[in-house]
Amino acid sequence: MNASVALPFLTDGSAPPGDPTPMHVMTGWMWMPMAPPTTARMLAIHLQPVPVLPALMLVLAVLYAAAVIRLRLRGDRWPVSRSVFWALGILIVLAMTATGIDGYGMELFSVHMVQHMVLSMGAPIFLVLGAPITLTLRALPARPAGRRSARRALLAVLHSRPAAFLAHPATVLVLFLASLYGLYFTPIFDWLMSTMWGHNLMLLHFLAIGFLYFWCVLGVDPTPRRSSRGLRRYAGPTVRILELAATAPFHAFFGVMLMMSVALVVGFYRSPMPGWHIAPLADQAVGGGIAWGFTELPTLLVLGVLLLQWQRSDERTSRRRDRSVDRAEAERLAYNDYLQRLAANDRGSAR
Hints:
Layout: H1 22-27, H2 39-43, H3 52-73, H4 80-97, H5 100-104, H6 109-121, H7 123-129, H8 132-139, H9 150-158, H10 161-167, H11 169-184, H12 188-193, H13 196-218, H14 224-227, H15 237-260, H16 280-293, H17 296-350
Helix pairs in contact: 3-4, 3-8, 4-6, 4-7, 6-13, 6-16, 7-13, 11-13, 11-15, 15-16, 15-17
């Protein structure tokens, strides 16, 4: 059957039994699930021809563990909480890409939207809190000045102009919102979903853009906003809280658009699996509700982290101020004592 052949629809929006869906025809992905979705099938391991993201996550987990071990063998400490956050981030990505959620995300728009939201706004938070860049800089061996090394190369990238451009709040905001409006309201989505590699590239894009966004907002790792003179005004907690709040209305509007639309936004999900009795438009509305409601929990989590960082920063500033006052007082007392000794010596000499 040719991919361009239009399939008739039942009253509920599904294709008639016996016909393959356009998704299977276009992609040839016969590993996509054929049975209706259930909780058990969603959570089951999902076999893939080329498990791109699951393999990448396992590699990153091994590299992170190797870096932590290297620090400990060297006698350096690494916070256990950082390792826990990184492990949680890896597990969340695996839950979205190595289970039935990945397969049903190719069949149902609502499940795909769960993938999108979790990969762009859930997993990146924990991956960023794992401070992988700081760990890498500490684990990489230092080299004498003037000699090339991986550590110096990484620092050069962090201090480069392209990195400063990517870390600018305007760039981050545009890239983050383009993952919503620029993807779903253009033919790009259908084009990417037509191949296995395009689908994996899309998921990797969600994860990368989410990491970039929260990397700049959370400020746990070194960022160009700290090293670039033109970006230092954006490194404060107030600006980062405003940056976090700026995306919420756009997410809400995107979700409402999907929920209120009387036509399918993307054509890839126009024909669900025969016999599932799922109306594509209703499923799209569910996906819109997921996009609208999912932002609240990550936003509150990140806001809590930012407020905690702000509090700790104030405490460090207060301690530095107290130490400065104590030093000044000690110096004043020492100087007064010195003057008193000089005066006593002068009196002794006069006698």
